[in-house]
Amino acid sequence: MPIEFTVNDQQKFYTCRLSGVLDDQQVYDAWVNFYESKHWPEGYLELMDLSGIIEARLTPSGIQRVAEYRISIHRLHAVAQNYLVFAPTDLTHGLCRMYHTYSGTSVENIKFAKTQAEVVSYIETYAAELKITSQL
User: Fold this and answer.
1) According to the model, what pLDDT value does residue 22 have?
2) pLDDT band at 103 (very low <50, low <70, confident <90, very high)
């Protein structure tokens, strides 16, 4: 499966793993299906793992369509979405930058990581902040 979602309710994040060969319609359909399912946990941190992408047959207009759709869902639900994107290659990092450009002044807060160490550090910081917030 080229796009898989896994929800971690205990630590309040979900993971979206993209792998293999991807095209615009696959990516768009996966997000529509996820948001319309009962599995999307509003407000959780999103960890997007792009390390498994072999080939990206994505177009600028396809990426823009996904960005606009996702932003519309977040605004509809009044959710300020936080992302950490693991983009270890130049290709995946470039795709992220393109998405970020199309998301403009959205309610999204996007961070990028090129190494697994950066991912772990961010998750540890997020978990610590979550514990502090829940104690207030």
Assistant:
1) 94
2) confident
